[in-house]
């Protein structure tokens, strides 16, 4: 990938046997991983195959040279705004948050304000200027809008690099709680199934999809009740919608998941980022941060299971600062 004129970029690639027969627009999004197909109209995309212009619906053959030119969209600038979220821990380098349900992590189409980033810019003075990026300053990882729980953000580029390396090298340990539909078999297991965009539903992901990327999730059954199962999930990779896709692939979608399951409208998405174990910048030993399960999740559990998760899992190295609420 390299820039041509100001704001324009060009990328070329040769189609291999595995992707022969794929549409041009699917090849751009799934194989070259440039952008989602919905963004094509906003990026002035032109494509040539072996030097000749083609339509995005063109089917590709092995050995063909695909050259794509596109523009970058105008930047989205986030403004500092007070946003409500619980701060689990904070120091000079990082802030650890218990993300509430419904909070979008960063601005984008349809969410220009009221995001976690807006709240971070309000809470951490000078954050945007330090990064020179007011769209995703300090964001190391993300949670879906309706997923709750632990999320860590950096206060400086150096801190961001230190945290991002751990996510990239998979040395962090993330644990989630989920309630899935059905009586999940066994006590614990590992799901090793690549994930890619669903060729039939482009807004979704699926296991064993074309151009799927490796995805591994370990799970442990905590308890079963009312044709549902409470599980602890430990993702070893970080694919989009990984936990939701993997559980649905077992025939046990996460309760409240309207995309991969059947949402009745009464249940929220019962997926909670329970804990994150990571080495903070400047430290040598990992800390573990735990986010309390939200009430709209815990009240859907039998009392015995509520007590079990409340008492059986505490942070190994709790913060020395008392949790507080921002906004």
3D structure, described in words:
The protein is an alpha+beta fold. It has a domain at 2-71: Roll (Structural Genomics Hypothetical 15.5 Kd Protein In mrcA-pckA Intergenic Region, Chain A), CATH 3.10.290. It has seven helices and 17 strands. The protein has helices at 24-31, 116-123, 127-131, 157-168, 242-249, 295-298, 303-312; strands at residues 2-3, 8-14, 46-49, 52-53, 65-71, 85-90, 94-99, 148-154, 173-181, 188-192, 195-197, 205-207, 216-225, 228-235, 271-278, 287-290, 324-326. Strands 6, 7, 8, 9, 10, 13, 14, 15, 16 and 17 form a ten-stranded mixed sheet that branches. A five-stranded antiparallel sheet has the order 1-2-5-3-4, with no helix packed on it. Strand 11 (195-197) and strand 12 form a beta hairpin. The radius of gyration is 21 Å and the shape is globular. 34% of the residues are buried. Mean pLDDT is 88; it is low at 315-323.
Poorly predicted runs are 315-323
- Please give the CATH architecture of the domain at 2-71: Roll
Measured between the Cα atoms of the first and last residue, the distance is 41 Å
Helix % is 10-25%
Structural class: alpha+beta
CATH class of the domain at 2-71: Alpha Beta
What is the general shape?
globular
Tell me the strand percentage band. Answer: 25-35%
Q: Which radius of gyration do the C-alpha atoms yield? A: 21 Å
How many strand segments? 17
CATH homology group of the domain at 2-71 = RNA-binding S4 domain
The largest β sheet comes out as: 10 strands, mixed
In the CATH hierarchy, the third-tier topology of the domain at 2-71 is known as: Structural Genomics Hypothetical 15.5 Kd Protein In mrcA-pckA Intergenic Region, Chain A
Give the SSE string: EEHEEEEEHHEHEEEEEEHEEHHE
Average of the residue pLDDT scores: 88
Number of helices: 7
């Amino acid at each position: 990938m390299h820039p041509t004129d100001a704001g324009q970029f060009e990328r070329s690639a040769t189609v291999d046997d595995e992707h022969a027969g794929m549409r041009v627009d699917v090849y751009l999004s799934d194989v070259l991983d440039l952008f989602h197909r919905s963004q094509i109209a906003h990026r002035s995309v032109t494509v040539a195959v072996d030097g000749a212009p083609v339509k995005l619906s063109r089917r590709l053959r092995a050995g063909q040279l695909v050259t794509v030119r596109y523009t970058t969209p105008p930047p989205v600038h986030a403004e500092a705004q007070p946003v409500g979220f619980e701060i689990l821990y904070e120091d000079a380098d990082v802030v650890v948050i218990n993300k509430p349900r419904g909070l979008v992590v960063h601005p984008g189409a349809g969410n220009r304000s009221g995001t976690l980033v807006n709240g971070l810019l309000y809470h951490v003075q000078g954050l945007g200027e330090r990064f020179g990026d007011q769209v995703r300053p300090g964001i190391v990882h993300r949670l879906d809008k309706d997923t709750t729980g632990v999320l860590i953000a950096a206060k400086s580029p150096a801190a961001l690099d230190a945290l991002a390396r751990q996510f990239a090298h998979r040395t962090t340990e993330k644990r989630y709680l989920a309630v899935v539909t059905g009586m999940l078999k066994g006590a614990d297991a590992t799901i090793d199934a690549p994930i890619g965009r669903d060729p039939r539903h482009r807004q979704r992901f699926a296991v064993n999809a074309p151009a799927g990327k490796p995805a591994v999730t370990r799970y442990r059954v905590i308890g079963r009740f009312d044709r549902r199962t409470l599980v602890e999930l430990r993702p070893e990779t970080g694919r989009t919608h990984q936990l939701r896709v993997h559980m649905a692939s077992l025939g046990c979608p996460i309760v409240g998941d309207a995309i991969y399951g059947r949402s009745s409208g009464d249940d929220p998405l019962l997926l909670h980022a329970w804990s994150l174990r990571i080495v903070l910048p400047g430290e040598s030993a990992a800390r573990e941060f735990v986010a309390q399960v939200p009430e709209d999740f815990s009240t859907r559990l039998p009392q015995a299971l509520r007590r079990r998760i409340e008492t059986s899992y505490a942070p190994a190295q709790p913060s020395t600062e008392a949790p507080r609420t921002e906004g």
